């Protein structure tokens, strides 16, 4: 299956999810405390918690409390929230993390349905 096949599969999965409406995600359940998590930081805008299947000695997630379904849905109205997530990630990493490449960077993976860990 080529790239077009994988992209098409991802697009169909996204469309099917939108047709069903916004279903609760594991993250919304963690925010609601119906799924347990080891919370490292919380404020009115976001939550930071340890990953349940860590891929490194320190592996945590920082999520907005207001769901943004995917990066392609981000707009100018989200700039303050996304900046806040980076500040919280920085503070949490100072308490709990380490860094190996000293140049700020974001990982964006796509083009096919991904498993974890990506590869």
From TrEMBL:
MF GO annotations: catalytic activity
Sequence motif Histidine triad motif, residues: 103-107
Catalysed reaction, written as an equation: adenosine 5'-phosphoramidate + H2O = NH4(+) + AMP
Domain of life: Eukaryota
Segments forming domain HIT: 26-119
Residues annotated as the enzyme's active site: 105
UniProt-annotated stretches for the region Disordered: 1-21
UniProt similarity note: Belongs to the HINT family.
Protein name from the UniProt record: Histidine triad nucleotide binding protein 2
Source species: Apteryx owenii
